[in-house]
Write a structure and sequence with these properties.
mainly beta
């Protein structure tokens, strides 16, 4: 039952506590070399998948080369729902990987066909937290709510049901009849059995659990299925209350023009000429700096990092990391994370999560050399994603690149190398360390007529909205503070109107009340449903999960079926 002929879905909630470059971490594997789901180690040691991105998810099929991978990583110390579906009857896209209900399959480097649901020889158990055939590829962290189906559950169903318990109201799940194994892991933690709540056709595949593997410190927070039968599509909801605009004085005249041409910069990644802003000492302040931009990269490179910007020949810069071993990469780092460059890869600061290809991401880097720790912080979409484990805590540098060479956009400062491929929009530089709250609040607002109450407005040094005349070669600096306007020179080929970051006009002309007033939510209207049917299987509420330190010899197993 665990190795169906053509269709399989595996689901689990995971919360890894470490990222390993040297050995992949198996969440589960069937038999000695059967199908499995694992967290990737991208190093070159035995047990890793060389050239792949560390902390992505892999579906194992006989070897790394034949396996399928996700295109984004899972975070350390955060719960992530992982689902893998296999359908060997399809002519393409036979394996799909979903993270938190979103399809994140790496369709560029993963095989399109030839999927295998291997049974590992047909005699060895399904193991949880390590590779099937050895006490190796050890997972470190928490695992909860394991489900196996002998169908390829749809993307919509995965997304709808991933946070719902399988209990009294679950018989209308579209794939209910194909549920093979359900380990809710809410059992008696003094025992050694995790009950299989599926128990289909009289077959119950309970797991044998070492007592040391139980934990009540963490668990995936699921809710009871809110419907006893399929809800209307879409479920009825009360109309939203009319918006209550916040009070504000009449708008003041704009401090600088903001156009709406909807342009951005675009790079193919092979350009010789790049946009530049003539060097100014204001770009290398003594102790505090913030750089912001919206980016939409079109490729991930293992061989050469991609500089979004750099000041001078070897000054500070912000770049997308290449984690390979070639010159121009940062060996051992995770590809497509963000780096703040300080003289070398070794002294630079990195993010702990990646940016997606072909999706807009807001990137912000703050530097404050006056702090005694956490001098550099990296924010992605307003969230602090600084890798505080491997990045330096102090010794931050705001290098000026020698003090004579321009600020370059889309490549390294001192050469036509480390070329960025993709779109860049809405560049802002401040000579202050903008707070996390301000970055999050303002990242999607234009800097225009209503922006003078921005907490760091007086420290804005450069603002390239990039909404200029795309037939020209000038991107206007909208900051223009104290009469200093640092316009950018833009090659005509760098303009694009195909993509741009969608910002909105700042909705307040002065600081809004804290918190902004909002009408009370309407009372919930429960959907109509028949009386609940008796539960198809017991669901307890002990709130447990499995926990692994990553050095165990014994692991939970389910006898082969």
């Amino acid at each position: 039952a665990f190795a169906p002929a053509s269709r399989l879905t595996f689901e689990a909630w995971i919360r890894p506590t470490t990222a390993s470059l040297t050995e992949s971490q198996f969440i589960t594997q069937l038999g000695i070399n059967g199908w499995g789901v694992f967290i990737v180690a991208g190093g070159s040691a035995t047990g890793s998948c060389t050239g792949k991105t560390t902390n992505t998810i892999g579906y194992f099929q006989t070897s790394c080369e034949s396996s399928t991978f996700s295109n984004t990583t899972v975070d350390v110390d955060e719960w992530t729902h992982v689902a893998v579906t296999v359908n060997t009857n399809l002519t393409s896209n036979q394996v799909r990987i979903y993270l938190n209900g979103q399809d994140k399959t790496d369709t560029v480097t993963s095989p399109d066909t030839g999927a295998v649901i291997g049974d590992g020889g047909g005699s060895t158990a399904l193991k949880i937290g390590a590779a099937g055939g050895c006490a190796c590829a050890l997972y470190a962290g928490y695992i909860d709510e394991i489900r196996i189906w002998n169908s390829a559950v749809s993307a919509a169903t995965i997304s709808q049901w991933m946070s719902w318990e399988l209990g009294a109201n679950s018989t209308w799940h579209p794939d209910w009849s194909s549920l093979v194994l359900h380990l809710a892991l809410d059992d008696d933690i003094t025992g050694t059995v995790a009950a299989d709540n599926a128990a289909k056709s009289g077959a119950r595949y309970n797991a044998t659990v070492p007592a040391s593997a139980w934990s009540t410190l963490q668990r995936a927070e699921l809710t009871i299925t809110p419907y006893a039968s399929p809800p209307p599509s879409p479920p009825p909801s009360p109309p939203p209350p009319p918006p209550t605009p916040p009070p504000s004085p009449p708008p003041s005249p704009p401090p600088h023009p903001v156009s709406s041409s909807g342009a951005s910069l675009y790079f193919e990644g092979n350009e010789i000429a790049h946009p530049t802003v003539m060097y100014a000492a204001a770009f290398a302040p003594a102790s505090r700096l913030t750089f912001e931009a919206w980016i939409r990269p079109t490729t991930a490179s293992l061989t050469e990092s991609q500089f979004i910007t750099q000041l001078g020949i070897n000054g500070w810069g912000v770049f997308i990391v290449a984690g390979g071993s070639a010159t121009g990469s940062c060996t051992g780092k995770t590809t497509n994370t963000i780096g703040y460059f300080q003289t070398s890869c070794e002294s630079s600061t990195f993010s702990n999560t990646t940016v997606d290809v072909d999706e807009w991401t807001h990137v912000a880097v703050t530097v404050n050399t006056n702090l005694t720790s956490n001098q550099v912080r990296i924010y992605l979409n307003g969230q602090d994603k600084t890798d505080t484990v491997t990045s330096p805590d102090t010794g931050a540098v705001i290098g000026d690149g020698g003090g004579s060479t321009a600020l370059k956009i889309g490549a390294a400062g001192g050469c036509a190398c480390a070329l960025y491929a993709g779109y860049i929009d809405e560049i802002r530089i401040w000579n202050s360390a903008v707070s996390a709250a301000t970055i999050s609040q303002w990242m999607s607002w234009e800097l225009g007529a209503n922006s003078t109450w921005h907490p760091d407005w007086s420290s804005l040094v450069l603002h390239l909205a990039l909404d200029d005349d795309i037939t020209g070669t000038v991107a206007a600096d909208n900051a223009a503070k104290s009469g200093a306007r640092y316009n950018a020179t833009v090659p005509a080929s760098a303009w694009s109107t195909l993509q741009r970051a969608e910002l909105t006009i700042t909705p307040y002309a002065s600081p809004p009340p804290s918190p902004p007033p909002s009408p009370p939510p309407p009372p919930p209207t429960p959907p109509p449903s028949p009386p609940p049917s008796p539960p198809p299987h017991p669901v307890s509420s002990s709130g447990a999960s499995l926990y692994f330190e990553g050095n165990e010899i014994a692991h939970p197993t389910v006898m082969y079926a």
